[in-house]
Design goal:
The chain has 389 residues and is α/β, with parallel strands linked by helices. The chain is built from 17 helices and six strands. It starts with a helix and ends in an 8-residue tail after the last helix.
């Protein structure tokens, strides 16, 4: 068996087509992801909120609001709001043009307080919706503060100084949260799915293991079926060689993403490497199983594997970032059995959660799927007989 593994390793090294799809293609796609997503998330977070403030009069309340807006900071001295003071007609025009994220009005209908009201427009942009949420929080906080000051001044004037002191502390409307002591970039999920795709592309090597042991599909298979070596011995040796070889290739891609592209995937590093190995195992056995079904041509089975792998990666979020959530809301069973979704979810769990129960669930499911693929492939190939070879 060791001799079979040795020669099969040499065959794999000489297969340039597989080397491209397993090794070079993920690296090239990773470079394009890095260029496309570089610094996008940080620029979105740091951008101040544009707002129009309606100037109906030059009252003391409006002056206080101007001062309050100018002193509210994002961080490091950067202003949170960029106000534009104008008439109501001009403010509505700016909102329609999406030049500003909202309009602030002063409301002095109450006799003893001057509060704020906010007008926003519907938007499909995540950034605009986030800015509108910040504005709503700001208006709510301001109105609550004004109401509390007026009530305390009227009923408990002795507590007014303490209240003003507490309100003078800056309120944080945006907060950077570190999950599991790592700053999780929104776009890192694309690299999780990229690794999942590379693992599933190992199915092409598993396909050739099956084809090369079927006498009606390849010349090599015809020779092997008349040789004295037991078929199962050859299949097991070649499958094992494929898994190890593809695992090494994917580790190279993984190292390139981490060391060259500087994508932080090193949290729980031993478990991350285990995920790559189990992903390669699942991909290889999937190719072996598909190759064992029927007497379809090599090209047909290749097409099934490539299109199937890309479809699974699409559903897990390789092309559309929130696709995993859409599938989870509409048909969650797909996320429970899809190898691409399980691999990417395993990496996601390692990156943001301290509780790794979901990670182990994903890994055990992948191992179970691999066992089913392996068993199915063995049952389909072990007793094949040919009338003529």
């Amino acid at each position: 068996m060791l001799q079979i593994m040795k020669y099969h390793f040499r065959i794999l090294l000489r297969n340039r087509e597989q080397m491209f799809w397993i090794l070079l293609f993920p690296i090239l796609l990773g470079i394009m992801f890095k260029v496309a997503f570089s610094n996008i998330s940080s620029s979105e977070i740091q951008k101040p909120v544009s707002i129009a403030v309606v100037e109906e009069n030059n009252s003391d309340a409006l002056k206080n609001i101007k001062t309050f807006l100018e002193k509210t900071e994002l961080k490091d001295g950067v202003a949170l709001f960029v106000p534009t003071y104008c008439t109501e007609e001009k403010a509505v025009s700016l909102l329609k043009d999406q030049t500003v994220d909202g309009i602030l009005y002063t409301d002095n209908s109450a006799s003893d307080t001057v509060t704020l009201s906010l007008t926003v427009s519907s938007s499909s942009s995540d950034t605009v919706r986030m800015n509108q949420s910040i504005l709503q929080a700001f208006v709510k906080q301001y109105n609550s503060s004004v109401s509390a000051i007026a009530d305390t001044a009227k009923n408990h004037p002795e507590n007014l100084e303490a209240l003003l002191q507490s309100l003078s502390e800056q309120v944080t409307y945006t907060k950077e949260v570190s999950l599991n002591k790592h700053n999780t970039d929104t776009y890192t999920q694309y690299f999780y799915n990229l690794i999942a795709m590379a693992c599933l592309f190992t199915s092409l090597s598993g396909l050739y293991v099956s084809l090369n042991n079927q006498g009606n599909l390849s010349a090599i298979g015809a020779r092997r079926n008349v040789s004295p070596v037991h078929k199962m011995k050859v299949i097991i040796a070649e499958l094992f060689s494929n898994v190890i070889f593809q695992f090494i290739c994917n580790l190279v891609s993984f190292a390139f993403i981490v060391l060259v592209l500087k994508i932080d995937l090193t949290y729980h590093l031993p478990l991350a490497i285990l995920t790559v190995f189990v992903g390669c195992l699942t991909g290889t056995t999937m190719g072996f199983f598909v190759g064992s079904i029927g007497a379809f041509s090599e090209g047909t089975k290749q097409g099934i594997l490539v299109s199937g792998s890309l479809l699974l990666c699409f559903l897990s979020g390789l092309m559309v970032g929130n696709m995993w959530i859409i599938v989870e809301n509409t048909c969650p069973v797909i996320n429970r059995i899809s190898p691409a979704a399980l691999i990417s979810r395993a990496f996601y769990t390692l990156g943001i959660q301290d509780n790794l129960n979901q990670y182990y669930q994903c890994i055990l499911t992948l191992v179970g799927i691999s066992a089913l693929f392996c068993l199915g492939g063995f049952l389909l190939t072990r007793r094949k007989r040919y009338a003529s070879i």
